[in-house]
Protein backbone atom coordinates (compact mmCIF):
# COMPACT_ATOMS: atom_id res chain seq x y z
CA UNK A 1 0.00 0.00 0.00
CA UNK A 2 3.02 2.28 0.46
CA UNK A 3 3.21 3.43 -3.18
CA UNK A 4 -0.37 4.73 -3.07
CA UNK A 5 0.30 6.73 0.08
CA UNK A 6 3.49 8.16 -1.41
CA UNK A 7 2.32 8.99 -4.92
CA UNK A 8 -1.47 9.41 -5.09
CA UNK A 9 -3.31 12.66 -4.44
CA UNK A 10 -5.40 13.15 -1.31
CA UNK A 11 -8.43 13.48 -3.62
CA UNK A 12 -8.77 9.68 -3.76
CA UNK A 13 -12.08 8.57 -2.29
CA UNK A 14 -13.18 4.96 -2.79
CA UNK A 15 -9.74 3.65 -1.79
CA UNK A 16 -10.37 5.01 1.69
CA UNK A 17 -13.49 2.89 2.08
CA UNK A 18 -11.95 -0.22 0.54
CA UNK A 19 -8.26 -0.19 1.61
CA UNK A 20 -7.07 -3.26 -0.27
CA UNK A 21 -5.36 -3.87 -3.62
CA UNK A 22 -7.65 -5.51 -6.16
CA UNK A 23 -5.98 -7.45 -8.95
CA UNK A 24 -8.73 -9.52 -10.57
CA UNK A 25 -12.47 -9.31 -11.20
CA UNK A 26 -15.04 -11.62 -12.73
CA UNK A 27 -18.81 -11.21 -12.96
CA UNK A 28 -19.91 -9.94 -9.51
CA UNK A 29 -16.66 -10.81 -7.75
CA UNK A 30 -13.55 -8.78 -6.91
CA UNK A 31 -10.30 -10.42 -5.81
CA UNK A 32 -7.35 -8.89 -3.95
CA UNK A 33 -3.68 -9.65 -4.49
CA UNK A 34 -3.75 -11.43 -1.14
CA UNK A 35 -6.43 -13.81 -2.40
CA UNK A 36 -9.52 -12.44 -0.64
CA UNK A 37 -12.84 -12.45 -2.53
CA UNK A 38 -15.52 -9.78 -2.32
CA UNK A 39 -19.01 -9.57 -3.80
CA UNK A 40 -19.41 -6.31 -5.70
CA UNK A 41 -22.53 -4.30 -4.86
CA UNK A 42 -20.87 -1.12 -6.18
CA UNK A 43 -20.38 -2.04 -9.84
CA UNK A 44 -18.08 0.86 -10.61
CA UNK A 45 -20.71 3.31 -9.31
CA UNK A 46 -23.05 1.97 -11.99
CA UNK A 47 -20.46 1.58 -14.75
CA UNK A 48 -20.47 -2.23 -14.68
CA UNK A 49 -24.12 -3.18 -15.10
CA UNK A 50 -23.05 -6.37 -16.88
CA UNK A 51 -20.43 -7.28 -14.30
CA UNK A 52 -16.66 -7.59 -14.60
CA UNK A 53 -15.09 -9.14 -17.71
CA UNK A 54 -18.42 -10.41 -19.02
CA UNK A 55 -17.74 -13.35 -21.35
CA UNK A 56 -20.51 -12.27 -23.73
CA UNK A 57 -18.73 -8.95 -24.28
CA UNK A 58 -15.04 -9.67 -23.69
CA UNK A 59 -14.49 -11.91 -26.70
CA UNK A 60 -15.72 -9.26 -29.12
CA UNK A 61 -13.12 -6.84 -27.73
CA UNK A 62 -10.32 -9.44 -27.73
CA UNK A 63 -11.07 -10.33 -31.35
CA UNK A 64 -11.17 -6.67 -32.39
CA UNK A 65 -7.81 -5.93 -30.75
CA UNK A 66 -6.27 -9.09 -32.23
CA UNK A 67 -7.35 -7.95 -35.70
CA UNK A 68 -5.67 -4.54 -35.17
CA UNK A 69 -9.00 -2.73 -35.20
CA UNK A 70 -8.69 1.04 -34.95
CA UNK A 71 -8.43 2.25 -31.34
CA UNK A 72 -8.38 6.02 -31.66
CA UNK A 73 -10.01 7.92 -34.47
CA UNK A 74 -11.24 11.29 -33.17
CA UNK A 75 -14.72 11.50 -34.70
CA UNK A 76 -13.78 9.92 -38.03
CA UNK A 77 -15.94 7.12 -39.40
CA UNK A 78 -14.95 3.60 -38.42
CA UNK A 79 -16.39 0.14 -38.84
CA UNK A 80 -16.77 -0.14 -35.05
CA UNK A 81 -18.74 3.11 -34.84
CA UNK A 82 -20.94 2.05 -37.75
CA UNK A 83 -21.75 -1.23 -36.01
CA UNK A 84 -22.58 0.53 -32.74
CA UNK A 85 -24.86 3.08 -34.45
CA UNK A 86 -26.72 0.35 -36.33
CA UNK A 87 -27.14 -1.81 -33.23
CA UNK A 88 -28.23 1.12 -31.05
CA UNK A 89 -30.75 2.27 -33.65
CA UNK A 90 -32.20 -1.19 -34.29
CA UNK A 91 -32.34 -2.49 -30.71
CA UNK A 92 -32.77 0.62 -28.55
CA UNK A 93 -34.24 3.54 -30.48
CA UNK A 94 -36.54 1.99 -33.09
CA UNK A 95 -38.37 -0.45 -30.77
CA UNK A 96 -39.13 2.48 -28.45
CA UNK A 97 -40.22 4.80 -31.28
CA UNK A 98 -37.43 7.24 -30.36
CA UNK A 99 -35.95 9.58 -32.98
CA UNK A 100 -32.57 10.97 -31.92
CA UNK A 101 -29.15 11.68 -33.37
CA UNK A 102 -26.09 10.74 -31.33
CA UNK A 103 -23.34 13.15 -30.38
CA UNK A 104 -20.12 11.49 -29.22
CA UNK A 105 -18.59 13.68 -26.55
CA UNK A 106 -15.49 13.31 -24.43
CA UNK A 107 -15.80 9.88 -22.78
CA UNK A 108 -17.21 10.90 -19.39
CA UNK A 109 -20.71 11.58 -18.17
CA UNK A 110 -19.85 15.07 -17.02
CA UNK A 111 -18.69 15.96 -20.55
CA UNK A 112 -22.00 14.74 -21.96
CA UNK A 113 -23.78 17.00 -19.47
CA UNK A 114 -21.60 19.93 -20.50
CA UNK A 115 -22.52 19.34 -24.14
CA UNK A 116 -26.22 19.04 -23.31
CA UNK A 117 -26.21 22.33 -21.42
CA UNK A 118 -24.29 24.06 -24.21
CA UNK A 119 -26.64 22.93 -26.99
CA UNK A 120 -29.69 23.97 -24.94
CA UNK A 121 -28.24 27.44 -24.40
CA UNK A 122 -27.23 27.70 -28.06
CA UNK A 123 -30.71 26.75 -29.31
CA UNK A 124 -32.70 28.99 -26.97
CA UNK A 125 -30.28 31.90 -26.63
CA UNK A 126 -30.86 31.81 -22.85
CA UNK A 127 -28.24 31.35 -20.14
CA UNK A 128 -30.28 30.14 -17.20
CA UNK A 129 -30.85 26.45 -16.45
CA UNK A 130 -33.15 24.85 -13.88
CA UNK A 131 -31.83 21.85 -11.98
CA UNK A 132 -33.31 20.00 -9.03
CA UNK A 133 -32.67 19.51 -5.35
CA UNK A 134 -30.35 16.53 -4.70
CA UNK A 135 -29.48 16.22 -8.39
CA UNK A 136 -26.00 15.05 -9.35
CA UNK A 137 -24.61 15.65 -12.84
CA UNK A 138 -20.81 15.65 -12.57
CA UNK A 139 -17.84 17.66 -11.33
CA UNK A 140 -16.70 19.79 -14.28
CA UNK A 141 -17.77 23.41 -13.85
CA UNK A 142 -20.97 23.41 -15.89
CA UNK A 143 -22.09 20.04 -14.58
CA UNK A 144 -21.26 20.82 -10.95
CA UNK A 145 -23.17 24.09 -11.24
CA UNK A 146 -26.36 22.07 -11.82
CA UNK A 147 -25.39 19.57 -9.11
CA UNK A 148 -26.93 20.00 -5.68
CA UNK A 149 -24.29 18.36 -3.50
CA UNK A 150 -22.54 21.00 -1.39
CA UNK A 151 -19.31 19.01 -1.07
CA UNK A 152 -18.83 18.77 -4.83
CA UNK A 153 -19.98 22.33 -5.46
CA UNK A 154 -17.48 23.58 -2.90
CA UNK A 155 -14.68 21.87 -4.78
CA UNK A 156 -15.19 24.23 -7.75
CA UNK A 157 -13.83 27.21 -5.79
CA UNK A 158 -15.47 29.65 -8.21
CA UNK A 159 -18.93 31.17 -8.49
CA UNK A 160 -21.41 28.71 -10.02
CA UNK A 161 -23.97 30.86 -11.80
CA UNK A 162 -26.86 30.75 -14.32
CA UNK A 163 -28.68 28.00 -12.41
CA UNK A 164 -31.90 28.03 -10.40
CA UNK A 165 -32.76 25.12 -8.12
CA UNK A 166 -36.28 23.69 -8.07
CA UNK A 167 -37.77 21.01 -5.76
CA UNK A 168 -37.56 17.44 -7.06
CA UNK A 169 -40.55 15.13 -6.91
CA UNK A 170 -41.49 14.57 -3.26
CA UNK A 171 -38.96 17.04 -1.89
CA UNK A 172 -41.63 18.71 0.24
CA UNK A 173 -43.58 15.49 0.68
CA UNK A 174 -45.71 13.53 -1.76
CA UNK A 175 -48.74 15.77 -1.24
CA UNK A 176 -47.03 18.92 -2.50
CA UNK A 177 -47.39 19.67 -6.22
CA UNK A 178 -43.90 20.94 -7.03
CA UNK A 179 -44.70 21.28 -10.76
CA UNK A 180 -47.54 23.66 -9.98
CA UNK A 181 -45.08 25.59 -7.81
CA UNK A 182 -42.59 25.79 -10.69
CA UNK A 183 -45.28 26.88 -13.12
CA UNK A 184 -46.19 29.76 -10.80
CA UNK A 185 -42.57 30.90 -10.58
CA UNK A 186 -42.01 30.67 -14.33
CA UNK A 187 -45.27 32.47 -15.12
CA UNK A 188 -44.66 35.37 -12.73
CA UNK A 189 -42.41 38.07 -14.28
CA UNK A 190 -41.53 39.23 -10.77
CA UNK A 191 -40.59 35.83 -9.34
CA UNK A 192 -36.90 36.51 -9.93
CA UNK A 193 -36.52 33.34 -11.99
CA UNK A 194 -35.16 34.04 -15.47
CA UNK A 195 -36.75 31.91 -18.18
CA UNK A 196 -34.40 28.93 -18.49
CA UNK A 197 -32.91 27.32 -21.56
CA UNK A 198 -33.49 23.88 -20.09
CA UNK A 199 -34.44 21.81 -17.10
CA UNK A 200 -31.99 19.01 -16.30
CA UNK A 201 -33.20 16.11 -14.18
CA UNK A 202 -32.85 12.43 -13.34
CA UNK A 203 -35.79 10.02 -13.23
CA UNK A 204 -34.12 8.31 -10.27
CA UNK A 205 -31.53 10.32 -8.38
CA UNK A 206 -28.62 7.99 -7.69
CA UNK A 207 -26.06 10.04 -5.77
CA UNK A 208 -28.80 12.26 -4.35
CA UNK A 209 -30.32 9.43 -2.33
CA UNK A 210 -32.27 7.09 -4.65
CA UNK A 211 -35.15 9.54 -4.93
CA UNK A 212 -37.70 8.27 -7.47
CA UNK A 213 -39.73 10.61 -9.64
CA UNK A 214 -43.26 9.37 -10.28
CA UNK A 215 -44.38 8.88 -13.88
CA UNK A 216 -47.04 11.54 -13.32
CA UNK A 217 -44.43 14.05 -12.15
CA UNK A 218 -42.17 13.36 -15.14
CA UNK A 219 -45.07 13.86 -17.53
CA UNK A 220 -46.05 17.07 -15.74
CA UNK A 221 -42.48 18.42 -16.00
CA UNK A 222 -42.41 17.64 -19.72
CA UNK A 223 -45.75 19.42 -20.19
CA UNK A 224 -44.51 22.40 -18.16
CA UNK A 225 -41.36 22.68 -20.29
CA UNK A 226 -43.37 22.59 -23.50
CA UNK A 227 -45.69 25.28 -22.17
CA UNK A 228 -42.80 27.66 -21.49
CA UNK A 229 -40.54 26.71 -24.42
CA UNK A 230 -37.94 25.06 -22.18
CA UNK A 231 -35.87 22.07 -23.27
CA UNK A 232 -35.86 18.93 -21.13
CA UNK A 233 -32.50 17.26 -20.50
CA UNK A 234 -32.83 13.79 -18.97
CA UNK A 235 -29.59 12.69 -17.32
CA UNK A 236 -29.72 8.88 -17.53
CA UNK A 237 -26.03 8.36 -16.89
CA UNK A 238 -26.44 6.34 -13.70
CA UNK A 239 -30.05 5.16 -13.84
CA UNK A 240 -29.95 4.17 -17.52
CA UNK A 241 -28.64 1.13 -19.40
CA UNK A 242 -31.06 -1.18 -17.61
CA UNK A 243 -30.39 -0.23 -13.99
CA UNK A 244 -34.11 0.23 -13.27
CA UNK A 245 -35.15 -2.64 -15.54
CA UNK A 246 -35.94 -0.88 -18.82
CA UNK A 247 -33.01 0.44 -20.88
CA UNK A 248 -33.98 4.05 -20.12
CA UNK A 249 -35.13 4.82 -16.59
CA UNK A 250 -37.99 7.04 -17.79
CA UNK A 251 -39.59 4.67 -20.33
CA UNK A 252 -42.68 3.82 -18.31
CA UNK A 253 -43.65 7.49 -18.06
CA UNK A 254 -43.88 7.80 -21.84
CA UNK A 255 -41.94 11.08 -21.98
CA UNK A 256 -39.61 11.90 -24.86
CA UNK A 257 -36.93 14.27 -23.52
CA UNK A 258 -35.39 16.76 -25.92
CA UNK A 259 -31.89 15.70 -24.88
CA UNK A 260 -30.67 12.55 -23.09
CA UNK A 261 -27.21 11.94 -21.64
CA UNK A 262 -25.76 8.44 -21.34
CA UNK A 263 -22.42 7.16 -20.07
CA UNK A 264 -21.30 4.82 -17.25
CA UNK A 265 -22.57 1.37 -18.37
CA UNK A 266 -23.06 2.36 -22.01
CA UNK A 267 -19.71 0.77 -22.93
CA UNK A 268 -20.82 -2.31 -20.96
CA UNK A 269 -17.22 -3.10 -20.00
CA UNK A 270 -16.07 -0.23 -17.84
CA UNK A 271 -14.52 1.60 -20.80
CA UNK A 272 -14.94 5.39 -20.94
CA UNK A 273 -17.83 6.26 -23.27
CA UNK A 274 -20.49 8.97 -23.30
CA UNK A 275 -23.11 10.18 -25.76
CA UNK A 276 -25.75 12.87 -25.99
CA UNK A 277 -29.00 11.93 -27.70
CA UNK A 278 -30.53 14.98 -29.39
CA UNK A 279 -33.83 15.29 -31.21
CA UNK A 280 -32.87 15.86 -34.88
CA UNK A 281 -34.45 19.31 -35.15
CA UNK A 282 -32.35 20.45 -32.17
CA UNK A 283 -29.04 19.28 -33.61
CA UNK A 284 -27.77 22.77 -34.36
CA UNK A 285 -24.06 22.31 -33.69
CA UNK A 286 -21.49 23.75 -36.04
CA UNK A 287 -18.80 21.18 -37.00
CA UNK A 288 -16.31 20.79 -34.16
CA UNK A 289 -18.14 23.27 -31.92
CA UNK A 290 -18.01 20.80 -29.04
CA UNK A 291 -15.22 18.33 -29.56
CA UNK A 292 -12.63 16.30 -27.68
CA UNK A 293 -9.62 14.17 -28.50
CA UNK A 294 -11.16 11.01 -27.06
CA UNK A 295 -14.70 11.22 -28.43
CA UNK A 296 -14.12 8.17 -30.60
CA UNK A 297 -13.40 5.26 -28.26
CA UNK A 298 -13.66 2.43 -30.75
CA UNK A 299 -13.04 -0.26 -28.13
CA UNK A 300 -16.13 1.04 -26.34
CA UNK A 301 -18.12 0.96 -29.59
CA UNK A 302 -17.25 -2.73 -29.87
CA UNK A 303 -18.22 -3.69 -26.32
CA UNK A 304 -21.36 -1.53 -26.31
CA UNK A 305 -22.60 -3.11 -29.54
CA UNK A 306 -21.86 -6.61 -28.23
CA UNK A 307 -23.79 -5.95 -25.02
CA UNK A 308 -26.80 -4.45 -26.78
CA UNK A 309 -26.97 -7.31 -29.26
CA UNK A 310 -26.72 -9.90 -26.50
CA UNK A 311 -28.88 -8.32 -23.78
CA UNK A 312 -31.30 -5.94 -25.51
CA UNK A 313 -32.48 -7.82 -28.58
CA UNK A 314 -35.22 -9.30 -26.38
CA UNK A 315 -36.71 -8.63 -22.93
CA UNK A 316 -34.99 -11.44 -20.99
CA UNK A 317 -32.58 -9.14 -19.13
CA UNK A 318 -35.37 -6.69 -18.30
CA UNK A 319 -37.46 -9.49 -16.81
CA UNK A 320 -34.46 -10.80 -14.86
CA UNK A 321 -33.77 -7.34 -13.41
CA UNK A 322 -37.37 -7.04 -12.20
CA UNK A 323 -37.18 -10.51 -10.62
CA UNK A 324 -33.91 -9.71 -8.83
CA UNK A 325 -35.22 -6.29 -7.81
CA UNK A 326 -38.16 -8.03 -6.12
CA UNK A 327 -35.67 -10.16 -4.15
CA UNK A 328 -33.77 -7.04 -3.06
CA UNK A 329 -37.01 -5.33 -2.00
CA UNK A 330 -38.10 -8.37 0.01
CA UNK A 331 -34.73 -8.74 1.73
CA UNK A 332 -34.47 -5.01 2.46
CA UNK A 333 -37.94 -4.98 4.00
CA UNK A 334 -36.86 -7.88 6.19
CA UNK A 335 -33.87 -5.83 7.43
CA UNK A 336 -36.10 -2.80 7.99
CA UNK A 337 -38.66 -4.88 9.91
CA UNK A 338 -35.93 -6.41 12.07
CA UNK A 339 -34.49 -3.07 13.16
CA UNK A 340 -37.48 -0.76 13.15
CA UNK A 341 -39.28 1.20 10.45
CA UNK A 342 -38.72 4.39 12.43
CA UNK A 343 -34.96 3.92 12.09
CA UNK A 344 -34.79 2.60 8.52
CA UNK A 345 -36.60 3.19 5.22
CA UNK A 346 -36.68 1.73 1.71
CA UNK A 347 -35.51 3.86 -1.24
CA UNK A 348 -35.07 3.49 -4.98
CA UNK A 349 -36.29 1.31 -7.83
CA UNK A 350 -35.06 -1.72 -9.79
CA UNK A 351 -31.49 -2.68 -8.97
CA UNK A 352 -30.72 0.74 -7.56
CA UNK A 353 -32.39 0.30 -4.20
CA UNK A 354 -31.15 1.26 -0.78
CA UNK A 355 -31.90 1.45 2.91
CA UNK A 356 -32.21 4.89 4.44
CA UNK A 357 -30.37 4.81 7.77
CA UNK A 358 -31.33 8.43 8.63
CA UNK A 359 -27.72 9.33 9.47
CA UNK A 360 -24.51 9.09 7.51
CA UNK A 361 -22.69 7.81 10.58
CA UNK A 362 -24.93 4.76 10.85
CA UNK A 363 -24.87 4.04 7.10
CA UNK A 364 -21.08 4.36 7.09
CA UNK A 365 -20.77 1.84 9.92
CA UNK A 366 -22.96 -0.63 8.03
CA UNK A 367 -20.89 -0.31 4.83
CA UNK A 368 -17.63 -0.67 6.78
CA UNK A 369 -18.92 -3.79 8.51
CA UNK A 370 -20.16 -5.15 5.17
CA UNK A 371 -16.67 -4.75 3.73
CA UNK A 372 -15.27 -6.71 6.68
CA UNK A 373 -17.83 -9.40 5.83
CA UNK A 374 -16.81 -9.55 2.16
CA UNK A 375 -19.15 -7.10 0.47
CA UNK A 376 -18.22 -3.93 -1.44
CA UNK A 377 -21.06 -1.42 -1.07
CA UNK A 378 -21.30 2.36 -0.74
CA UNK A 379 -23.57 5.09 0.59
CA UNK A 380 -25.43 7.89 -1.17
CA UNK A 381 -27.79 10.71 -0.23
CA UNK A 382 -27.50 14.30 0.97
CA UNK A 383 -26.03 13.10 4.27
CA UNK A 384 -24.54 9.82 2.91
CA UNK A 385 -27.31 8.13 4.86
CA UNK A 386 -28.41 5.57 2.24
CA UNK A 387 -26.80 2.13 2.01
CA UNK A 388 -27.05 1.58 -1.74
CA UNK A 389 -27.27 -1.78 -3.53
CA UNK A 390 -25.78 -1.48 -7.03
CA UNK A 391 -25.06 -5.12 -7.88
CA UNK A 392 -24.49 -6.12 -11.53
CA UNK A 393 -27.72 -6.70 -13.45
CA UNK A 394 -26.32 -10.07 -14.51
CA UNK A 395 -25.60 -11.31 -10.98
CA UNK A 396 -26.87 -14.83 -10.26
CA UNK A 397 -29.68 -15.20 -7.75
CA UNK A 398 -27.35 -17.27 -5.57
CA UNK A 399 -24.66 -14.58 -5.50
CA UNK A 400 -27.28 -11.87 -4.95
CA UNK A 401 -28.65 -13.67 -1.92
CA UNK A 402 -25.13 -14.33 -0.62
CA UNK A 403 -24.39 -10.61 -0.80
CA UNK A 404 -27.71 -9.76 0.84
CA UNK A 405 -26.91 -12.26 3.60
CA UNK A 406 -23.67 -10.37 4.23
CA UNK A 407 -25.51 -7.06 4.29
CA UNK A 408 -28.21 -8.39 6.63
CA UNK A 409 -25.53 -9.69 9.00
CA UNK A 410 -23.77 -6.32 8.87
CA UNK A 411 -26.93 -4.44 9.83
CA UNK A 412 -27.50 -6.89 12.69
CA UNK A 413 -23.93 -6.46 14.01
CA UNK A 414 -24.03 -2.66 13.79
CA UNK A 415 -27.44 -2.37 15.43
CA UNK A 416 -26.43 -4.79 18.20
CA UNK A 417 -23.44 -2.53 18.97
CA UNK A 418 -25.63 0.56 18.85
CA UNK A 419 -28.02 -0.98 21.40
CA UNK A 420 -25.14 -1.89 23.68
CA UNK A 421 -23.80 1.64 23.44
CA UNK A 422 -27.19 3.11 24.38
CA UNK A 423 -27.60 0.64 27.22
CA UNK A 424 -24.26 1.57 28.73
Can you describe this structure?
With 424 residues, the protein is of the alpha/beta class. Helix content is 40%, strand content 15%. The chain contains 14 helices and 17 strands. The protein has helices at 2-7, 14-17, 43-46, 55-66, 79-93, 109-124, 141-145, 150-154, 178-187, 215-228, 298-311, 316-339, 360-372, 397-423; strands at 22-26, 29-32, 37-40, 101-104, 129-132, 163-166, 198-201, 204-205, 211-212, 231-235, 259-262, 275-278, 345-349, 352-356, 375-376, 378-380, 386-389. The chain has a seven-stranded mixed β-sheet. A four-stranded mixed β-sheet has the order 1-2-3-15. A four-stranded antiparallel β-sheet has the order 13-14-17-16. A hairpin with a 2-residue loop joins strand 1 and strand 2 (29-32). The mean pLDDT is 96.
Jot down its keywords.
single chain, 424 residues, alpha/beta, seven-stranded mixed β-sheet, four-stranded mixed β-sheet, 14 helices
In short:
With 424 residues, this protein is an alpha/beta fold. The chain has helices at residues 2-7, 14-17, 43-46, 55-66, 79-93, 109-124, 141-145, 150-154, 178-187, 215-228, 298-311, 316-339, 360-372, 397-423, and strands spanning 22-26, 29-32, 37-40, 101-104, 129-132, 163-166, 198-201, 204-205, 211-212, 231-235, 259-262, 275-278, 345-349, 352-356, 375-376, 378-380, 386-389.
Number of helices: 14
**How is the main sheet built?**
7 strands, mixed
Instruction: Tell me, rounded to a whole number, the average pLDDT.
Output: 96
Question: Strand content of the residues, in percent?
Answer: 15-25%
Distance from N terminus to C terminus (CA atoms, Å) equals: 38 Å
Q: What general form does the structure show?
A: globular
Nearest-angstrom radius of gyration?
A: 22 Å
Number of strands: 17
Strands across the major sheet, in which order?
Answer: 4-12-11-10-7-5-6
Helicity level, as a percent range? Answer: 25-40%
Structural class: alpha/beta
Low-confidence stretches: none
Amino acid sequence: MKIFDEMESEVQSYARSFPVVFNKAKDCYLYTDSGDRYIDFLSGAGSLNYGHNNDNIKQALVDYIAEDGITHGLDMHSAAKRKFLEVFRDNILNPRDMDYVLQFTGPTGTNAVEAALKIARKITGRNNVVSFTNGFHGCSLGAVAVTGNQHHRGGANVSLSDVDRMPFCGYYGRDVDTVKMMDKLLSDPSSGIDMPAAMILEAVQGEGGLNVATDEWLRAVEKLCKKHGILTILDDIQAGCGRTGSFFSFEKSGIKPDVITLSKSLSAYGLPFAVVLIKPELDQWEPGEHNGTFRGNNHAFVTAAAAIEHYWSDNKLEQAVHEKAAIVTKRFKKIIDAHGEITLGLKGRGLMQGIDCRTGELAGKVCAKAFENGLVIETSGNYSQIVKCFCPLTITVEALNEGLDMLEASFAEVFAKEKLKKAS
